[in-house]
Amino acid sequence: MRHVLGNKQLLILFLASFFILFVGMGLFPLLPLYAAGFGARPAAIGLYFAIVFTANAAGPLFAGWLSKRFSLKSLFFALAAAPVPAVALLGQATAFWQLVVLTSFIWFTGGAVLALVGVLTAVHAGDEERGAAYSLMFTAYPLAGVVGGATAGWLVEASGYPALFLVMAAVWIGTPLSALVVRDHKDGEVVDEEGDEAPVPVSAFGRSYFGLLVAALLVATAVNVSRLGTSLSMEALSFSPGAVASTATVSGLITMPLTLLIGALSDRLGRQRFMTAGYLLAAAAAVALVVAQTLWQFWLAATLAMIAYSVTNAVGSALAADLLPKRALGRGIAWFNAVNSAAGIVSFAAAGMVMEALGPVVLYVGTAGIALLATVQLGALACDPGLPWRFLWQRMPATRPAPACV
Question: Which DSSP state fits 367?
């Protein structure tokens, strides 16, 4: 971890992530309340988030495609600067559709930039310190939740939503400024710069990598439902915007040190056991929401979901980088990032509709079941990559060794 903290490029990437996540983590708990102000019901809010995360899933894929045509540095700056006006304009929205369009564009570009951060982290971190490097990047999530959540809640209650979005736009400007001093190479090497060599075929990514994507898709679905469900349940119980925003603050304070510690330990003790713990915490977060009625209970559920989110993404990104051929890092890491957003497409849409039709208990119990299914897939990945859905990729060569059984 000491080498990681002394790496200036990794610290720049951390700052770039933090500015984006300050906005995203600060706004996420409040957007359902803001949408409700336009008359949106839970089902409509769920569809709204599904559209937003469809855009968010497309962002990393778009970044991966463009990374073959432009330098990572120039692409980083352009995508980071583009959404600043859109963030400010959120406070001027007069109709629900305007909120949907603006938020979708912000999450699209944000997802693209965070995917580039993931690629550049793999470039600038050594093989033996990837867990620590990615844990540093994903510590930006809970840290942004603490600062962004507290700031957003205070601004809304003190000055209203227009002031909130203006401040968030000003914060976002830090990301393109960070992009000006980041390098897209290490020791003269550029990621995915393949020259005359043929592109790495998708089949060469290996069964272990695609088995990991399935597990990541399932657990991300569970975590996303819990994150949105926390806001929807609190809104139904008439909690104030400040109380809703406090879930991000409390969960972030607890998650920060754990993410750094677990990422560093995964370099020494292996990725598998820590990812399994994160998957089980995702199930626990959903169970906690079944009985949540008071503020501290929602803090607990939000904290469990945040720990699961940060740990599974940090350690999972490191594991994906371990499994991928070096020249496929650009596409492979972008795909891994896109999986988290892709899970949100279905989970957010379903969360609102299931909550309206069947109630929150059915929603959260089903969510816990999905997290447990993800844990089964992760365990199968360690001993027999691809099970229990191995037929989807059984013809793909296992070009990288699977993680050892633990």
Answer: H
Residue the block writes with tokens 């120039």: 74
- Grouping H, G, I as helix, E, B as strand and the rest as coil, residue 165 is helix
In angstroms, the CA 380 to CA 75 distance is: 38
Classify burial at 211, counting beta carbons within 10 Å of its beta carbon; exposed 0-12, middle 13-18, buried 19 or more. buried
Beta carbons within 8 Å of 101's beta carbon, 6+ residues apart:
none
> Which of 380-386's residues contact partners 24+ apart within 8 Å by CB, and which partners?
380/211, 381/208, 381/211, 381/212, 381/215, 382/272, 382/406, 385/206, 385/207, 385/208, 385/211, 386/207, 386/210, 386/211
Name the strand (E) or helix (H) holding 317: helix 295-323
Coil, strand or helix at 190: strand
CA distance linking residue 4 with residue 13, whole number of Å: 12
pLDDT, mean of residues 183-189: 54
Report how many helices (DSSP H) and strands (DSSP E) the chain contains, helices first: 16, 2
Name the residue type at position 169: A
* 72, amino acid identity: L
Whether 396 has a pLDDT exceeding 70, the answer reads no
pLDDT of amino acid 1 = 52
Which residues touch 157 (CB under 8 Å, ≥6 apart)? 240, 241, 242
